[in-house]
Amino acid sequence: MTDELLHIDQKIIEILKTVSDPEIPVLSIVDMGVVRAAKMNDDVVEVQITPTYSGCPAMDVIGDDIISAFNQNGLKAKVELVLSPAWTTDWITAEGRKALEKYGIASPLSADADKEALLGNKKIVKCPQCGSLNTKLVSQFGSTACKALFQCDDCLEPFDYFKCLK
Ligand SMILES: [Zn+2]
Fold first, then answer.
1. Given a cut of 60, is residue 3 above it in pLDDT?
2. In angstroms, what CA-CA distances link 1 with 45, 60, 88?
């Protein structure tokens, strides 16, 4: 969690935590590290979010979801996209990584390791089912453009890997 977030009113955080990435319902946008800042300005909550990568169609949905989540709590909200600094997978919280694995999605590696994994050069993506590193890339595109499809050679389960998109 970034320093700015610590200053956000607890109520605002609670509401933001009810909004999740439409592609990964178990991961709130707070745990995903997408929320940069949020503050009350008069009676409007101003929320700044950084897209996981530019052009991610999920971001429009997230913006609308944030506004409706605040509306449901009787608050008005405004969403602003902040493109710099760019989102990195380091911003996913520890809680978020756990949620991903529970959901059967392997957490992203660092940017360099990510490239190796997506080229199929190295066995570094951990199977979220059994923890084995004996996994192979099946397709660079999984169920959505933000994920790649892997398969575990030990438990034979296919699984999504959340790509480190820049
Ligand atoms: Zn496995």
1. no
2. 19, 23, 13
Ligand 1 centroid vs 56 CA: distance in angstroms?
Answer: 29
Other CB atoms within 10 Å distance of the CB of residue 143: 11
Identify residues whose C-beta is under 5 A from ligand 1, the ion: 127, 129-130, 132, 152, 154-155
3 state SS of 116? helix
**CATH number where 33 lies:** 3.30.300.130
Q: What is residue 144's predicted lDDT score, i.e. its pLDDT? A: 74
CB atoms inside a 10 Å sphere around CB 71 = 11
Whether the pTM exceeds 0.85: the reply is no
* 16 and 77 housed in the same domain: yes
Name the E strands within 18-129.
20-21, 24-28, 35-41, 44-49, 76-81, 105-106
